[in-house]
Design a protein that fits this description.
Low-confidence stretches: 5-11
Radius of gyration: 21 Å
Distance between the termini: 53 Å
GO molecular function, one term: DNA binding
Number of strands: 9
CATH class of the largest domain: Alpha Beta
InterPro entries: GreA/GreB_C_sf, Tscrpt_elong_fac_GreA/B_C, Tscrpt_elong_fac_GreA/B_fam
Largest sheet: 5 strands, mixed
Strand order of the largest sheet: 7-6-5-9-8
Structural class: alpha/beta
Helix content: 25-40%
Order of helices and strands: EEEHHEEEEHEE
Pfam family, one: GreA_GreB
Protein name: Transcription elongation GreA/GreB family factor
Strand content: 25-35%
Number of helices: 3
CATH architecture of the largest domain: Roll
CATH topology of the largest domain: Chitinase A, domain 3
Amino acid sequence: MSKAFTKEEDGTENVRLDDLPQSPHPNLVTPSGLSDLNTRLVDRRLHLVKLREKPDEIDRKLAVAVIERDIRFLEGRISRAIPIDPESHPNGIVAFGAEVDVLNEDDQQLTFKIVGEDEADPARGLIAPYSPLGVALLGGELGSSVEWHKPTGSVDLEIVAIRFQ
């Protein structure tokens, strides 16, 4: 029988879900990224308290297990967080926390910000430092070209602006 189900002394079954996998990469975070992680943790803890106050329901047990798993995940992310102040980096070189304007091969300007994995949202231009685009941009200098290796082929990007906010 799986250890996910254990009997308590009162005879009720508790559900313990396996932990969510943690990234193998260092957990670099911006100040806002760390704040977001802490906010998410507080929200999940509050939700757990409210859920435990409800009458005993079958669905509640699984919901509690999901929230407990989320809390363990967030606690792990926070405990391994490495806060990086983007403003501490020298100007002119792409580093963690930089907002970067690039020109693609079609002279279209695109803007990306290199943020922690928990903040990453490529659709909004927020990219992780370990993503192919993040790897291509990191260390790039103002005016230089970098090669972004995509599944569909490589793209040359010219770095036209670097900002740290």
